[in-house]
Structure formats: structure tokens, C-alpha cells
Design a protein that fits this description.
By secondary structure, the chain is of the alpha/beta class. The chain is built from 8 helices and 14 strands.
């Protein structure tokens, strides 16, 4: 971050995730200058009227803005999306969200190569969209982070359930696509910092919970996305970027040879250190995990190829 008060611009501030993130940041101890952008201006104004009453509880400010706010932002969070449809998979949102994001991605692609902020892509499907933007943007690939931490958070909840412990005690990672081809890393799970090996039955129960999560969510037939979980995770990442202490989370970053994958953004464990440059953590993966990761990356590459050009309407 380049200033004491980080400027966070939320593209999609009229939606559930964007407004929930604004609320989460407003009630945080750290000060933020929060900017809301959204195509539904009346909804943005409605959120602002509500959020302004929250501001006295924290140290932050909130206002509406425009594309001219991007250049001096420290963090740009992209949550804009077509309406959530309970009957749709994450991949089904690709064609609609390409058109929603194209004008914003066009502006982001013009940011100079030395821009020192961070872009967080939250809109689904996050991996193809992050890949798409990374191919057009001038900025370093490590500064474009697709939000895919929810899979790892759900893994921790599932592991905690089979072990009968509090989820806050569990650390575990899911890599690959934010979707059905995600890859849980069972050899990298710990409880209270101590490595834990799940039985085959426990692993099966965890995989079943992970793979069925989205279907169980959409089966409720409620037109709502995971606003609270996602907002909390993104806010934690923003705090990690603002501090000089080491933090770890998961994000889709375009790979450049890591795990023998090139040009595709998929979920990876990420570390932020004192220099605040996100780095992909190198983990020892078993052959089946490598194979599953490559299948996941191939699917993301195929979908990203459908996005077309950012700079052409």
C-alpha cells in the first residue's frame, strides 16, 4: 500500500458481495477510503445511505465513484455480475459476465505496468475471468488475484466436522478451479499447527461435502450468493496486503511454469510477506494431485479462450 489509508474501489458495489465487503471494511479497525461503482446507480445510492450510518463505528469513509478512481486505488475489487440464478453452474455465468466486465477490464488493461496496487477478481467464474484479464493487463501477474479462498474455507469446515474440532483450529488448502474440478490437498492439513492425516473414509466424507456444496446451495432456490463468507475472506486478504506481517490464503494467480502450467490462473496457496508481493507457495503434490490440477487448468484455459478480446466491444 502506498498510503496510511488504503483506497479500495469496489466494482459492483450495488450487489450483495460488494455491499457486504463495504460494510465489513467500514467496521474494521483499519482505515479505508471505500469507493463504490455500480451500474445500478440508485441501488448504489441506497447502499451508501445505509453505509454512511455505519461509518461512525469504524475509521473509514465510503462514497460513490467512477472509472477515474481506478488509477490511484490501492486495491480494486471486482464483484460485478449478472443476477445469481439458482439453477446455473458457476461456468454458466461466463458469457453474461464477460459483457458486464468488459468495460471495466478495458480500463484495467490501461493501468501502467508500474501500477503498484492489486486487483481482486471475485466475479464467477473467477479462474477464466482472472486468466482473461491477466493476458491483457500490463501490470505484474502477481497483482491480479482471483478470489478462490472459499473452497479452502469449506475444506476446513468439512475437516473440522469429521474430526469433531473447531474449524478455526484447522488449516488446509484447495487448489485448482473454483468449481467441480478443485483439488483438496489432504497431505497438507493441520490442526493447531500439527499435521493430520485423515482416513480414507474421512477423506471421502470431506470430498463429498466439497463436491456437493454448490448443488446443496442452489437447491435452496434462493437468488443469493455467498456475500458474508466472500466479503469476510476478501477483507482478510486486503488486511494482509496492508500489513507487513506474513499472511497466507488462496487465490487464482496466472501460473508461469509453476507446476508445469503456463498462462492459466487457478487457485494456489499464496503468501504475503513484508514486501507485500503475493507469492505462490511451492507445495509437494502427489502424482494424482498434479494430474487433477492439470485437468483443472486445461478446463480453465478452454473457458478463458471463449472470452475474446478485452479491448474490442
Amino acid at each position: 500500500m502506498v498510503s496510511t489509508t488504503a483506497k479500495v474501489t469496489i466494482i459492483g458495489g450495488s450487489g450483495g458481495v460488494g455491499s457486504a465487503l463495504a460494510y465489513t471494511l467500514l467496521t474494521a479497525a483499519e482505515p479505508y477510503d471505500i469507493i463504490l461503482l455500480g451500474q445500478r446507480s440508485q441501488t448504489v445510492e441506497c447502499h451508501l445511505m445505509d453505509l454512511e450510518g455505519v461509518a461512525p463505528f469504524g475509521a473509514s469513509t465510503v462514497r460513490s465513484g467512477g472509472l477515474d478512481d481506478l488509477a490511484d486505488s490501492n486495491v480494486i475489487v471486482i464483484t460485478a455480475s449478472i443476477p445469481f440464478l439458482p439453477s446455473a453452474s458457476r461456468a454458466d455465468f461466463l458469457s453474461g459476465n464477460i459483457e458486464v466486465l468488459r468495460p471495466y477490464f478495458r480500463a484495467l488493461a490501461e493501468l501502467p505496468s508500474d501500477w503498484d496496487g492489486y486487483i481482486m477478481v471475485v466475479t464467477n467464474p473467477v479462474d477464466p475471468l482472472s486468466t482473461w484479464l491477466s493476458h491483457w493487463a500490463r501490470i505484474d501477474r502477481h497483482r491480479i488475484l482471483g478470489y478462490s479462498w472459499n473452497d479452502s474455507l469449506r475444506l476446513r469446515v468439512a475437516v473440522a466436522r469429521v474430526l469433531g474440532v473447531n474449524a478455526a483450529r484447522v488449516v488446509g488448502w484447495v487448489i485448482g478451479e473454483h468449481g467441480d474440478t478443485c483439488v483438496p490437498l489432504f497431505d497438507n492439513i493441520s490442526v493447531d499447527g500439527n499435521p493430520v492425516q485423515l482416513s480414507s473414509e474421512q477423506q471421502h466424507a470431506v470430498v463429498l461435502e466439497l463436491q456437493s456444496w454448490y448443488r446443496r446451495w442452489t437447491a435452496l432456490r434462493v437468488s443469493r450468493t455467498t456475500a458474508w463468507t466472500t466479503a469476510s475472506g476478501v477483507a482478510a486478504m486486503i488486511r494482509g496486503l496492508a500489513r507487513s506481517t506474513t499472511s497466507h490464503w488462496c487465490a487464482a494467480v496466472r501460473l508461469d511454469g509453476e507446476y508445469d502450467i503456463d498462462g492459466v490462473a487457478v487457485g494456489m496457496p499464496i503468501s504475503i510477506n513484508a514486501d507485500r508481493v503475493p507469492r505462490i507457495r511451492s507445495l509437494e503434490l502427489a502424482p494424482p494431485e498434479i494430474e487433477a490440477l492439470h485437468r483443472s487448468a486445461d478446463l480453465v484455459r478452454h473457458r478463458a479462450d471463449q472470452c475474446g478480446e478485452v479491448l474490442v466491444a
